[in-house]
Task: inverse folding
């Protein structure tokens, strides 16, 4: 199959991009929060919701069998996409948050005792902070914080100071959702393993903007959401190494995760179903498989060059705006810019941009500790993806200077 | 002037704006021209925290009426805050509790009061009504 390497062909796959917002053509730059969906994804959702719908794994009828095939087929697609060793290591969840919570509950119950420690990073999303605060409180463990420097980069020297044998898990973002920095995760994994700790990578942004190979990364867990990678909302993945998952008890109990049940005692199903209690979002999961196949159908070199061109245009344009500060400076960044402008409030800016048809994110972006670290109450974030165009960057920059002129007098 | 009359007055002021741009420029102007809270009122207990912007609201009760002062760190939010203060300040608790705020919709700003905006305005209105209940009970 020929790979997609033409912006118009790609945009044609996304009907949502053609709409008008506030009377203007939509310019969608909030891809870091959620991505629009290609036709293959909406098509699968429609097809299943309007016909191919039978609960998976437990019935012998045709619709159930078809759905089970689609569900398990998607699991294999995910496995291949992240190069996991086995589909037993691929658990369907409702999103990154659910994946992190699964580990924070189940891994903690099996592996973390009073006096142990957990490391997270101050730049992390709340969904990687709060579950670990809760887990540490329950287990009587200590929560240690990996700080970032003024550029937003991990302080690897500080990591060495807080990483000792008490640390059982290091749970951090692969790529920062605010700063867009691709963190040195391979180095971190080596250091953590040497200290006897396992590593969970929050891959909510990482799965979209890097080629994730979990065996090469050698991480023990990798968590991501479907909706940011063009898949349906309410889908997600937890990858876990088999050797660790096998030693973890289930978190939620219910149907489909059991082997035998008596009223006194239950034995649990093998991987991965042990962690998928209840009817999963099998329709969403099937469509997530389609989303990943869509990503695989993109010409990687084209995507890389296209996003690089857009990012250069964006950064150069932003730097021309007086008093604008971009946060996060690192050798490797994804096509994203979070910034503040002197004398202009981020919420005002985002509100006026919305009136001009431009969708950006503003506020704390679920990273209140990072906002405090930089001494701000919020930022504006422009996050690009493959379907954005140079013309859209132009509209954004013009809209931005118009908004700044209105707000700054 | 009753609450309804003040609301009607605001609706008439806004009726001259045919473009969204003019409307928002007016809100920015309102936000800029009004020092609506004393610095001493900007204390933690008066802060309503939203993800997007912050709003401060202080209330004083005198002669059966509640007097509000308020502020926001975002200028457009502050403009809307000033409209709400204009409508609510100097009213009896009963008047405040009966107000339905339909003028916000009439001037096309209802999206700013949506819970998704997280700009503190919805919480501000809740807080205003809460003050009215509290002062009415303490009469």
Result:
């Amino acid at each position: 199959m020929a790979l997609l390497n033409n912006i118009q062909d790609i945009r044609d796959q996304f009907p949502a991009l053609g709409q008008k917002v506030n009377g203007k053509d939509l310019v969608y730059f909030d891809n870091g929060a959620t991505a629009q969906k290609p036709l293959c994804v909406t098509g699968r959702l429609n097809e299943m919701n309007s016909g191919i719908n039978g609960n998976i794994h437990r019935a012998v009828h045709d619709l159930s069998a078809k759905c089970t095939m689609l569900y398990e087929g998607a699991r294999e697609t995910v496995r291949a996409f992240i190069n996991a060793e086995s589909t037993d290591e691929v658990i369907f969840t409702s999103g990154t948050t659910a994946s992190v919570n699964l580990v924070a509950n189940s891994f903690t119950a099996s592996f973390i005792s009073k006096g142990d420690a957990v490391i997270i990073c101050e730049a992390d999303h709340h969904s990687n902070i709060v579950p670990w605060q809760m887990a540490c409180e329950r287990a009587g463990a200590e929560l240690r914080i990996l700080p970032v420097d003024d550029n937003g980069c991990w302080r690897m020297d500080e990591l060495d100071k807080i990483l000792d044998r008490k640390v059982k898990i290091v749970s951090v973002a692969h790529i920062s959702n605010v700063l867009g920095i691709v963190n040195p995760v391979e180095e971190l994994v080596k250091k953590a393993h040497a200290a006897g700790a396992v590593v969970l990578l929050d891959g909510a942004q990482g799965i979209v903007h890097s080629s994730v190979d979990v065996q090469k990364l050698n991480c023990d867990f990798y968590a991501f959401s479907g909706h940011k990678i063009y898949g349906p909302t309410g889908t997600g993945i937890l990858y876990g190494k088999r050797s660790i998952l096998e030693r973890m008890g289930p978190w939620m109990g219910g149907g489909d995760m059991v082997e035998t049940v008596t009223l006194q005692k239950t034995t649990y199903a093998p991987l991965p179903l042990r962690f998928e209690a209840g009817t999963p979002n099998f329709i969403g999961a099937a469509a997530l498989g389609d989303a990943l196949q869509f990503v695989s159908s993109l010409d990687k070199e084209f995507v890389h060059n296209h996003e690089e061109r857009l990012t250069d245009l964006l950064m150069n344009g932003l730097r021309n705006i007086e008093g604008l500060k971009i946060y996060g400076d690192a050798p490797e960044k994804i096509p994203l810019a979070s910034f503040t402008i002197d004398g202009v409030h981020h919420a005002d800016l985002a509100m006026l941009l919305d009136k001009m048809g431009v969708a950006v994110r503003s506020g704390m972006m679920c990273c209140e500790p990072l906002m405090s670290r930089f001494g701000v109450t919020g930022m504006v974030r422009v996050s690009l993806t493959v379907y954005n165009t140079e013309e859209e960057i132009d509209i954004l920059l013009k809209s931005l200077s118009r908004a700044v002129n209105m707000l700054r007098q | 002037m009753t609450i309804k009359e003040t609301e009607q007055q605001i609706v008439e002021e806004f009726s001259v704006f045919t473009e969204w741009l003019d409307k928002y420029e007016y809100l920015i102007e309102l936000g800029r021209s009004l020092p609506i809270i004393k610095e001493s009122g900007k204390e933690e207990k008066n802060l309503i925290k939203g993800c997007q912007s912050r709003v401060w609201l202080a209330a004083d009760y005198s002669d059966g009426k509640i007097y509000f002062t308020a502020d926001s760190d975002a200028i457009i939010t502050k403009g809307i805050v000033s409209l709400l203060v204009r409508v609510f300040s100097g009213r009896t608790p009963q008047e405040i509790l009966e107000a339905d705020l339909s003028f916000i919709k009439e001037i096309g700003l209802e999206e700013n009061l949506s819970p998704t905006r997280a700009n503190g305005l919805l919480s501000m209105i809740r807080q205003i009504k809460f003050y009215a209940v509290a002062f009415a009970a303490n009469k």
User: Anything to note?
Assistant: The mean pLDDT of chain A is 96. The longest strand of chain A covers residues 167-173.
